[in-house]
Amino acid sequence: MDPAGCTGAEVYPDMSGGIQDSALSRLNFDRLSFDPQELSARLAAAEDWGKLVVCHIYLDHILTAALTDHMPRAESYLKSGYKTFADKVALCQALAIIDDEIAATLKSINGYRNKFAHRLVFDVPDETKVALFKEFSPSRPKAHVLGPEGFDNFLFSVVMLSEFERIYTQVIAEKDREIAFNRERMLEIAIDMFLEQRI
Prior knowledge:
The chain is mainly alpha-helical. It is built from 9 helices and 2 strands; from the N terminus they run ββααααααααα. Strand 1 and strand 2 form a beta hairpin. The chain is elongated and about 80 Å long.
């Protein structure tokens, strides 16, 4: 799998003959909570069952980070006893951090990972790959997940989309706090101006 698609290094020519940056090259990757190239390397190095475990570990990390981003006292919740992956998905879904479609895919990945965690047979059959892929991307042909590096690319996409959802909701929350602060500040200024005119 080529992680270069996530570096934002590619550029596209514009109509005037100059160079136009791609959308990826304009993204700020400072907010990523992990190294996408490391994720790609880990997925490529593992057998299929290992890929599923790697994906699950990264998704659990993202869910924990998302809860920490959005809950003022997340640590008291997260440290108050064992929280399962399913608990974190449900809470992220309830807080509108992740949407229902992504949540369904994460729940399916969790279910399959749990099945493999308790068996001595570690094969991920094509039917499982297709079922996960179709839940995530119903309109795309199953050949995309069954082809060379297809399962790697699928799992990489799920992890990256989940991370981008986490970052997006974090940015929106920051903007909402900034707007609320500015609104409060403007109200204070308006009240001060009104009081000054009355004196």
